[in-house]
Design goal:
heterodimer; A: 11 helices; about 40% helix; about 20% strand; disordered C terminus; B: mainly alpha; 10 helices; about 70% helix; elongated
Chain lengths: ~300, ~280
């Protein structure tokens, strides 16, 4: 798939962030990425690369020890970073929704699924209690849950992990947002369930024309679902482009190393290669040069 | 109902329920007038002992008043104090605890320091001092207990609120753009309530003890209203002539406090949404 020609749904420009707790260590280094209309955009990198920080910055839930140092998050012509708390809350849940990482903790343990699904529909979509309940029922059917009535009446601990993730996906897409942030939605699930969940996200996304920012550390998962991909290392964009092109012919040594680190089920003797030290050294040097360069640019 | 399956909750809760019924219908249940003095029937032993007289199941005190009837009427003060004082302390402490735990920063600092300073006072001395200032009576006892007890609720609720606020489901609710009050009351509060109910029950037991201490030292309701603490004080003076005057209210007090504690313990386990299956 090619890059979108129209105005992108989400346009992140030069986003920088620093950690206040860690001597102002940079977490994001002038990250730019676009998510087009109806596009699934993968955001890949190892832990600590800054993937989640980007997702949190969009949702306005940056932890207190992190500060956004610069850049813009453009959404529908507005910069989400400059919105007031209430203006951002009006966008969240209506135009942007989240599929969280861990379905075992992302649902409130002491409330029934019913109450948790209808909350958003009533408060954000203005549905009556009765309408919201009917909508929740049909949403669960849409994510292939066989007995929605039982699930709606259940507490989260009574459901399996895959089931809970379906509920969370139904809740997110049920708000009919323009953009869904999927923060490692399959990481906490076992492999067989992963596939079903990926297929489900893709199907819902295509049906509703939703744009998805798909955060993952797993290139294999990204290859299955994403149109384009951005590879991050230490908060810096290392490679960006159409998924097929990037995976078939990675231009950057780090992307190659990431691909080599993926387990190969067809050839168990290969794969799981650690990133070669010379690649890391080169990357670090590249980032140091980038930091020095952008420092000069800021001073000048 | 899951609660019914927990024997602790059933037995202790059943006893508390029985006490409530006894307290409400005391005038119908009590065999004698708890205030009627008769020096001819003074210090009669309970039924089953030599010289016992029918009609005085647990014997009489030094003024010839029926001990059983006084224990029955005494439950009224104990339970009123338990429910009203612990309830009010719970309300005040929880509101402050929720605010401190959820808002954090400045509100948390102010409320937490206040609790620290408050808790540095010895509780019983504080309540005796307080009653010395505002005067005796049921209202004063309740106020005294609320004043010393809200801090416990505040501490527990604050800690619980803080740990719940770190949970992913709160982040998820923020990502849907719910307002802070909505998150506090719809998402966090339901997860704090189980701990709160368990603590409330435990504190009811403590309120019963504190009321007994205050009436023991004569700082509770006036002496024409029977209280367990007051009876223990009277019984102590004549313990060599009639041990039952001391033993009966002591047993009632003991059983009530044990029941509240066990109920609190049982509720803590059965109300936990993750532990219950």
């Amino acid at each position: 798939m090619t890059a979108p020609k129209t105005m992108p749904r989400l346009a992140i420009e030069d986003l920088s962030a620093i950690s206040l707790r860690d001597g102002n260590r940079p977490i994001l280094r002038r990250v730019s990425l676009d998510v087009g209309l109806g596009e699934v955009h993968g955001l890949v990198g190892e832990s600590g690369a800054g993937k989640s920080t980007i997702a949190k910055a969009i949702l306005g839930i940056i932890p207190s020890q992190v500060r956004i140092a610069g850049g813009k998050i453009g959404f529908e012509g507005r910069d989400l970073l400059t919105l007031s708390g209430s203006a951002l809350r009006a966008v969240l849940g209506r135009d942007i929704a989240l599929v969280p990482q861990d379905p075992t903790t992302a649902l409130n343990p002491s409330r029934r699924i019913d109450a948790q699904m209808t909350d958003g529909l009533r408060l954000k979509r203005g549905l009556s209690a009765k309408e919201a309940r009917l909508r929740a029922h049909s949403l669960l059917e849409e994510v292939q849950i066989r007995d929605p009535d039982r699930v709606l009446a259940s507490y989260p601990h009574q459901l399996s992990g895959g089931m809970r993730q379906r509920v969370l996906i139904a809740a997110a897409f049920g708000l009919e947002p323009k953009l869904v942030i999927a923060d490692e939605p399959t990481t906490a699930l076992d492999v067989t369930v992963q596939k079903q969940i990926l297929r489900l996200i893709r199907a819902l996304q295509e049906r509703h024309g939703t744009s998805v920012l798909f955060v993952s550390h797993d290139l294999g998962v990204v290859a299955k679902i994403c149109d384009r991909v951005t590879v991050l290392y230490m908060g810096k964009v290392v490679e960006q482009g159409a998924t097929a092109a990037v995976l078939a012919a990675p231009r950057h040594a780090y992307t190659k190393a990431l691909l080599a680190a993926n387990p190969r089920y067809d050839r168990p003797d290969t794969g799981l290669e650690p990133t070669p030290p010379e690649v890391i050294t080169a990357l670090r040097a590249e980032i140091a040069a980038f930091d020095a360069g952008s420092g000069e640019a800021r001073d000048g | 109902m899951r609660l019914i399956s927990d024997p602790k909750v059933v037995v202790a809760g059943g006893f508390i329920l029985f006490l409530i019924v006894v307290a409400i219908f005391a005038p119908l249940i009590a065999p004698q007038d708890p205030l009627a003095q008769n020096l001819l029937t003074a210090t009669l032993p309970p039924i089953g002992f030599p010289d016992a007289e029918p009609g005085f199941l647990l014997g009489t005190d030094g003024l010839g008043r029926d001990v059983l009837s006084r224990v029955i009427f005494g439950s009224r003060v104990s339970l009123t104090v338990a429910f009203v004082a612990a309830g009010l302390a719970c309300l005040i402490g929880s509101i402050l605890g929720l605010l401190a735990g959820y808002l954090g920063t400045f509100a948390d600092t102010v409320i937490s320091r206040l609790v620290d300073v408050w808790m540095a006072f010895p509780p019983v001395l504080l309540s005796i001092l307080l009653i010395a200032v505002i005067g005796t009576g049921l209202h004063s006892v309740i106020i005294a207990i609320v004043v010393i007890d809200w801090t416990r609720f505040c501490r527990v609720v604050r800690t619980e609120t803080m740990s719940q606020a770190q949970m992913d489901y709160v982040t998820a609710a923020q990502a849907v753009g719910f307002s802070r009050p909505a998150i506090l009351f719809r998402e966090i509060l339901p997860n704090v309530v189980p701990v709160l109910i368990a603590l409330l029950t435990l504190e009811m037991g403590i309120a019963v003890v504190v009321e007994a201490i205050l009436s023991f030292v004569g700082l509770s309701v006036s002496s024409d209203t029977p209280t367990w603490g007051g009876m223990i004080a009277e019984g102590r003076q004549i313990v060599h002539e009639g041990w039952w005057v001391l033993a009966a209210p002591l047993a009632a007090l003991f059983a009530t406090v044990v029941a509240f504690n066990q109920l609190g313990d049982g509720l803590a386990r059965s109300l936990d949404p993750v532990l219950r299956r």
